[in-house]
From TrEMBL:
This is Cell division transport system ATP-binding protein. It comes from Anaerocolumna xylanovorans DSM 12503. Keywords: ATP-binding, Cell cycle, Cell division, Nucleotide-binding. InterPro entries: AAA+_ATPase, ABC_transporter-like_ATP-bd, ABC_transporter-like_CS, ABC_transpr_LolD-like, P-loop_NTPase. Belongs to the ABC transporter superfamily. Coiled coil: none annotated.
Length: 229
């Protein structure tokens, strides 16, 4: 469970990016985070990744306040997250398989098992046939799916995707959202910042977090029978 209580984030230059954000997210939830440019979406994801710490308030992950975590605990927590970055952060000259295997570099396991896990993740995103292709030769959409495979290969508790539909047409945006949402399970929470949540099938339950000038409001689909987007 992720619980934020009156969490604020002020950057060093004094910018108030998050203003007393309070929200509770249960395990296995599908979450859409929306809001205008500069409203604080990425800042919220950075907090969840432990890349920034709250300036005020409490952010609790499971049983621990993130500000109380020691280095080791923070590292273990980060390893339980599968991040999908806006700009993918793939190594262009390496194969899709090698890039996905990098998602497991912290595992002290033998190479063969890591390779099998990476191939399985590529299969899940429909790219097994491109496993040995160099990333620079992949299409934009394929590279994005490699980035998703790298995020899910570690079987994370939390998948964080920052604007995965930003540069996609409607058809591909739906495919990517559906793919990301498919990783939502009892114990896997999927949080996606997107402007395209309304493209998902109507019967999907999710939490909608709206950001506006650093403030957050939260609604759960199904609470009132109304769809949120
Ligand atoms: N490292 C930083 N230092 C100072 N200010 C920052 C920093 N990162 C972001 N900001 C500011 O914090 C506010 C929130 O930014 P954030 O990137 O979280 O917004 P966003 O909703 O993700 O925007 P976008 O949709 O454009 O990606 C903005 O005013 C932004 O300029």
């Amino acid at each position: 469970m992720i619980s934020a209580k009156d969490v604020s984030l002020v950057y060093q230059d004094g910018t108030l990016a998050l203003d007393k954000v309070s929200v509770t997210l249960k395990e296995g939830e599908l979450v859409f985070l929306t809001g205008p440019s500069g409203s604080g979406k990425t800042s919220f994801l950075k907090l969840l990744m432990g890349m920034e710490l709250p300036t005020a308030g409490n952010l609790t992950i499971g049983e621990s306040a993130i500000t109380d975590m020691g280095r080791k605990e923070l590292r273990r927590y980060r390893q339980s997250i599968g991040p999908v970055f806006q700009e993918f952060r793939l190594i262009e000259k390496r194969t899709a398989l090698e890039n996905v295997m990098l998602g497991l570099r912290f595992l002290e396991d033998y190479e063969g098992r890591i390779k099998d896990m990476a191939l399985e993740a590529l299969n899940k995103v429909g790219l097994l046939h491109k496993a040995y292709g160099c990333v620079e030769q992949l299409s934009f959409g394929e590279a994005q799916r490699v980035a998703i495979a790298r995020a899910v290969v570690r079987k994370p508790d939390l998948i964080l995707a920052d604007e995965p539909t930003g540069n996609l047409d409607q058809e591909n945006a739906v495919k990517i959202l559906t793919l990301l949402a498919s990783f939502q399970k009892e114990n896997t929470t999927v949080i996606i910042t997107t402007h395209a949540a309304h493209l998902l099938p109507e019967d999907r339950e999710f939490v909608h977090l709206r950001m506006e000038s650093g403030k957050m409001s939260a609604e759960r689909s199904g609470d009132s029978g109304e769809k949120l987007l």
